[in-house]
């Protein structure tokens, strides 16, 4: 424990130890009390209100009580007591009567001859004189005279009257002075050192401790009457000083205990006990101030209960892990032993010697020292725990640093990895983009093929109908023809027979007529005519469809050809066939005077079919009756100032569902579709846009929800009419 | 029955086709033609037809839709779809749903179409017969149930123990017959119009 103390701590310990040894030595070497020459006889007369005059004392002799023992104890007195001392007669002249009780308020020796007062000698600590600390009185000259003492004491009145030699009194006084000086030295050393510690550590407990040392020191002074040297001239303090310092020391000790033992932390229940005891001491002070010195003194005595209480408290605190509490326990144990010894001595159980008188001061010094050690230990413990906390904090901060470093490293690694990932993602992205473009190209191709397929389907259906009736009519016509030939043959036979005049010619003629009737000749003639008409019409229609097809030119041909948009539109509608005509009414307005232009005719017909089919679908979304659905295809030209056409305009109008603003804006985006998933690729109009861009043509949409949509396609003539400029 | 005249109705929006059809088959069947679906519906109400043929692509209504329209009222008529170009999805769907007995593409093969019409007629006859027989079975079951009910009433009236147990047997029998009749009736309904 001392190992961690600063060097001057060791010096202090040695100093105090040396003083203590010196103190003990003083006590031991002069350890005998002034020996009684003879046993004195004491008789006491109570004077409760202190009004009894010396002249009246002899009238009360009957009330005198004889006191027994060497150290009669009268207890606390409210005011005064008269003591007649006898038994000194025959003692040597230089003998002195001594009352070794420094706590009495005042003492007055009165020599009387009967009722007559011969001499008064006041003395006592209250005078504030060193020689009065051990009141010493000469013997009366005439042994027949009475020696009375008038004593006032608010403290328990112990009366160790002794008859002793004057030199012994001197040496007793010197020893007392020396002992008190040494004690004071020790206390001062402890006080100063701990004061220094208190200020250097700033610990609350040290300040309390300093107060404890100071008050305990003052109490010890008080026990020896030395406090009167300081404030003896103030009557109230002279009477109550010891009580006040005692109470103060109790307050200081309890406060110190509370801080040192960390009562709130370890033994919170005891806080109330400490408060109670503090109240006792505080009450003592109040009582003293209010002029009840005896009550005050007894309250201080009651406060002595704190000693065992502190003992128990420190033990409990120690058991609960407050290790410095053990020092505290030992300190209070020693103090309690010392106090107990003192009490035993006061009650005559132990001999009243200089040695036993040492118990209390030595006990208090030891207590102070142990408490000081305890404090040191506690400070060390605090320091250790604070060191541990610092070390822990350091470890934590080191750990934090390590973590931060590690995190930084991880972060860097992550950044690197992320960068790499990004690079990979980037290359993946470009690859995906490439693939996407490939896929888009493929989709566009697919869309083209789909258009081709649709067109093929439309053409097939368109062709199959006329082919059907051409073929079927031909078959029927052959059958009719056979029947007609049959009839004709019958008639030819009959005619020949008639011409030859052969017999049975009439029968043959009848048979021929019969045949014609049976086979319904007139019906056959009519039917044959109609069958032939059907064949002709079918052939004509077939020719027209094929003629329309020719207008398309090569579907994938990139080479511009001169084409009439009127023909192209008509052919497109024809080729769409049922896909347009049977689903909506298609009106066309295709004036002849619109100039032809150079274009990729196959691609343009794809554009027209796409837009017309969209228009038909839009009408289907609005009308359930096909008669209500209307798609109008118009061809027009725009004229410049000179009346010359500068562009050709195609309008495809429908009375369908119309489009909202967002749809109009996204209309030409690839993959944008309003159709159900799987029903449209969303490429149709983006391809249309691409083809029109190639032609330098413009496409505009006018639409209103629930009203219909118009696509307006504008083909500038100046660019498209000159293929050479394109070819360049 | 085999000697009966086969009555055929052909619906197409293109006049020349109607004429061709009539010219081709007038010697084999009693041919009626029509170019308007609603007229065709009226004709079906006025005469009993065995087979009805329709073009698939017509303005306003498709052949399959037309068949759907007439099916509830004429479940027994055999339906044949004629079309210029294979509208495969619609046709397959129609056949699977049982709306169409056969599918014939234009230009038609006369012989093939003739045999298709004859087969369709046979199906129509079979369906009508089975419906008739089904109804006979149903009415027989009804009679049987009624007879069981009557006997049960008599047994009840007799009032002796044996008659009572007989009555309860008869009640069970009657319930059984009625359940069977309901089941058969439902089956008949389900069979209606199925090719």
Topology (elements, then pairings):
The complex is a heterodimer of chains A (about 725) and B (about 200).
Chain A (H helix, E strand, L loop, with lengths): L6 H23 L11 E7 L6 H4 L7 E3 L5 E3 L4 E7 L8 E5 L6 E8 L2 E8 L12 E3 L7 E7 L4 E2 L2 E5 H36 L2 H20 L3 H5 L3 H26 L2 H4 L3 H20 L3 H11 L2 H14 L5 H22 L7 H4 L1 H142 L4 H14 L2 H32 L8 E3 L1 H12 L1 H4 L3 E5 L7 E3 L1 H22 L7 E10 L5 E10 L6 H6 L17 H11 L3 E7 L3 E9 H4 L2 H5 L1
Parallel strand pairs in A: 13-15
Antiparallel strand pairs in A: 1-2, 1-4, 3-10, 4-9, 5-8, 5-11, 6-7, 6-9, 12-14, 15-16, 16-18, 17-18
Chain B lengths: L6 E5 L3 H11 L4 E5 L2 H10 L4 E5 L7 H8 L7 E6 L4 H10 L4 E4 L4 H49 L2 H31 L4
Parallel strand pairs in B: 1-2, 1-3, 3-4, 4-5
Helix pairs in contact in B: 5-6
Describe the structure.
The complex is a heterodimer of chains A (728) and B (195). By secondary structure, chain A is an alpha+beta fold. Chain A has 4 domains: 2-28 and 177-382; 34-172, Immunoglobulin-like (Sandwich); 387-550; 553-727, Histidine kinase-like ATPase, C-terminal domain (Heat Shock Protein 90). Helices cover 61% and strands 14% of the residues of chain A. In chain A, the strands form 5 sheets. Chain A has a 6-stranded antiparallel β-sheet. In chain A, strands 13-15-16-18-17 form a 5-stranded mixed β-sheet. A 3-stranded antiparallel β-sheet of chain A has the order 8-5-11. In chain A, helix 3 packs parallel to helix 13 and helix 4 (204-223) packs antiparallel against helix 6 (235-260). Chain B is α/β, with parallel strands linked by helices. Chain B is 61% helix and 13% strand. Chain B has 6 helices and 5 strands; from the N terminus they run E-H-E-H-E-H-E-H-E-H-H. Chain B has a 5-stranded parallel β-sheet, sandwiched between helices. Chain B is elongated, with a radius of gyration of 24 Å. Classes of the chains: A alpha+beta (728), B alpha/beta (195). Chains A and B meet through helix 13 and helix 15 of A and helix 1 of B.
